[in-house]
Amino acid sequence: MDIKSIKGVGPKTLKVLNSIGIYSTSDMLYYFPRGYEDRNNKKTVDKLIDGENAVVNVEVSLIMRCKRTRTGKSINRIVFKDDTGYLTGVWFNKPYMSKTFKIGENIILYGTIKINNGEIEIIEPQYEKIKSEEYNGIIPIYPLSKNITQNALRKISNQCINSVNEDIKECLPIELKKRYELEDIDYAIKNIHFPESFDALNKSIRRVKFDELLKLQLALFLIKNQYENDKTAYKINPCPQIPKLIESLPYKLTNSQKNAVNETIQDLNKNKAMNRLVQGDVGSGKTIIAIIALFDCAMNGIQCAMMAPTEILAQQNYESIKKVLQKWDLNIQMLSGSTSKKDKDDILMKLKNGEINIIVGTHSLIQDDIEFKNLGLVITDEQHRFGVRQRSNLAAKGHNPHVLVMTATPIPRTLALFIYGDMDISIINELPPGRQKVDTYFVRPSLRDRIYKFLKKQIDEGRQGYVICPMVSENGDLDVSSVEQMAVFLKNNYFRNYKIGVIHGKLNYKEKEKIMKDFYNKKIQVLVSTTVVEVGINVPNATVMVVEDADRFGLAQLHQLRGRVGRGIYKSYCILIGDPKTSEGLERMKIMVMTNDGFKIAEKDMEIRGTGEFFGLKQHGLPELKLADPIKDIDILKDAREVAKYLIESKKIYDDEFKILREETEKILYEKKDDININ
Question: Using an 8 Å Cβ cutoff, are 609 and 665 in contact?
Answer without folding.
Answer: no
